[in-house]
């Protein structure tokens, strides 16, 4: 026990003395969180750019423009002539162009039942059909309501709409749990691989082997020191996320800490495997980078796994970072309990068992 405590304290002192590595290890996830959070903090709202050409220039046409301008999803600009507005649409600067022809007000004021309906001209971008359909639906709804007011329309059947408020998530709420998972991966897999390979190359492990120190004590001290480091860094990242982006933890802190520990153990075991197969400290870094870089971008850290190509999703769902980021996200955003995250626990625990067995078999003091 005495050797375990001394070795844990020695490892923590090594972390603290290497201030450059410590600062950059902590700043890297915070930097990613602030950059991505600032860029994508506007949420998933839909905004449509619409140009209006008012050729009628009447009180009624002005009222129509005012109604359109009050729609939150529409950004309205006015153009003087149709050709210029259509050119803006073709250049991608506008998504829809509405032309109010001359005679609009006269048609409304002298409406007769047998008169043909007045036609507004609407141009839209065929290359962005999903966005255009939203804009056309909004415009059609407004025009339809004006038409019904003109003929004193009384509906025979109506709908009773009931709004259900789902969980409101911003991109930053999705991002922060992924950043914490990425930090655990980087600190442990890359950090352990480089450090252990370096110690073996410098003969430090061989000298430890010559002491009464047991391998289990050495590994336990490594785990304890890195758990303390990970927990501290995770708390700092979550604190900054709360202060800057108002991100909170809806679930249990116990469950969150459980996954921090499980993720730390899993990626440390993988790091020991990399250290064991690396002949030099210089080769450990590239091997760890080769494995961690794809996991960083494919493991659901920055983007939802469901948005990725279907053929690669089974592979992504088999790697540990995807289950760690999913579990962290479920706990923080949804408030899921540990029992509801059985699949994530099973996958991470499976990776831990296999990796630990492989690391124990491959690990060498010399």
From TrEMBL:
From the record, give the transmembrane residue ranges: 21-40, 174-197, 218-241, 253-275, 287-305, 338-363
| Domain ABC transmembrane type-2 per the UniProt entry, residue ranges | 140-366
**Which superkingdom does the taxonomy of this entry point to?**
Bacteria
Q: How does the UniProt record describe the way this protein sits in the membrane?
A: Multi-pass membrane protein
InterPro entries documented for this protein: ABC-2_transporter, ABC2_TM, ABC2_TM_bact-type, ABC_2_transport
What Pfam families does the record tag this protein with?
ABC2_membrane_3
| Principal location listed in the UniProt entry | membrane
Q: Which UniProt keywords apply?
A: Cell membrane, Membrane, Transmembrane, Transmembrane helix, Transport
> What is the annotated localization of this protein?
Cell membrane; Membrane
One Gene Ontology cellular component term attached to this UniProt record is: ATP-binding cassette (ABC) transporter complex
Does the record's keyword annotation contain Transmembrane helix? yes
Q: Does the keyword Disulfide bond apply?
A: no
From the UniProt record, which GO molecular function terms apply? Answer: ABC-type transporter activity
Which family is this protein grouped under? Answer: Belongs to the ABC-2 integral membrane protein family.
Give the protein name, as stated in the record: Transport permease protein
